[in-house]
Amino acid sequence: MTIDVDLYLSKTVSTAPAELQPILEKIRKLHSKKLWHQLTLATFEFLDHPLSPPFQVDFFENFVREFEAKLNALKLVDIGVRTSKQLSDPNAILEFLSSLRSRIDQTADPAAYILALASLAHAKLAFGDLVGTKTDIDECLKLLDNLEGAERIVSAAVYGVAADYYKAKADYAPYYKNSLLYLACVDPDTQMEPQERLERAHDLAVSALLGDTIYNFGELRIVVDTQPLSAYASDIGVSRRLTLFLD
After folding, report:
1. So what's the pLDDT on residue 13?
2. How many CB atoms lie within 10 A of CB 62?
3. How many Å is the Cα radius of gyration of the chain?
4. pTM here?
5. Residue 146's pLDDT is what?
6. Which pLDDT score, from 0 to 100, does residue 236 have?
7. What pLDDT, in 10s, does the model give residues 161-188?
């Protein structure tokens, strides 16, 4: 793929909203100086800007793809996964994430590969491919078991999609296990929307009651008592009902 980065950035800077132009100009200068680490940070700054979503896919395909080999692989996958959320067509999302995963060297960058595969599994789950989702989850878990010092973003992606898969299957015990593992990898206050926190607290309560192999609720009590989830769960009485049940 041949990309005229200078032409693309010049056109984008001139047509983007005024609020985005300083970031894009900074990105243009950093790219010209080949300051890859600073460029990575500026790229995340661009993605985090509330006006950037309509430009993100074009930005990735016409800019990030040109220098992606210079990026830390895990950062590249994180950028790609964020960008994929701006796509609406299921086939386009699956194709985008499949392509991203195929460009990651599993041997050289196992953490990045796991993150890409877990993200692809989540997309398959969203579009109803339960078989494909389970295949990818199993591979992710096997790779994660052999990965030393996995970053939280990687573990959270794997346990998050595993929990969602078992929720879709109404398989309460593995949902309970993977959901708790997921919560151990994230900060609910900053990484979960209020509605998601409510739903997670509710689903944990249900799985604790209905899971036929759950006999020890100590981990759930820790979550209820210490995680920010408890404040949101109390809005619908989940925290109180769990406390009464566990007592």
Report:
1. 87
2. 18
3. 20
4. 0.85
5. 94
6. 40
7. 999 999 999 999 999 999 999 999 999 8
Contact (Cβ atoms closer than 8 angstroms) between residue 219 and residue 242 = no
Contact 161, 121 (CB under 8 A): yes
Please give the structure tokens belonging to residue 150: 């996995």
pLDDT at 79 over 80: yes
Write b or e for each residue in 90-122: b if 16 or more Cβ atoms lie within 10 A of its Cβ, otherwise e: eeebbebbeebbeebeeeebbbbbbbbbbbbbb
What is the average pLDDT across 146-160? 95
Residues 206 and 88: their CA atoms lie apart, in Å, by: 32
Two tokens at 202?
A: 């509710």
Q: Are 192 and 200 in contact (CB under 8 A)?
A: yes
The tokens of 189 are what? 């206050």
Distance of CA 48 to the CA centre of its chain: 14
- Phi, psi for residue 149 in degrees, rounded to 5: 65, 45
Tokens standing for residue 7? 């032409």
Residue appearing with tokens 């036929």: 212
Q: Which residue has the tokens 């595993």?
A: 162
| Alpha-carbon span 28 to 32, nearest angstrom | 6
Smallest CA-to-CA distance from 66 within 75, 55, 74, 76 is with 76
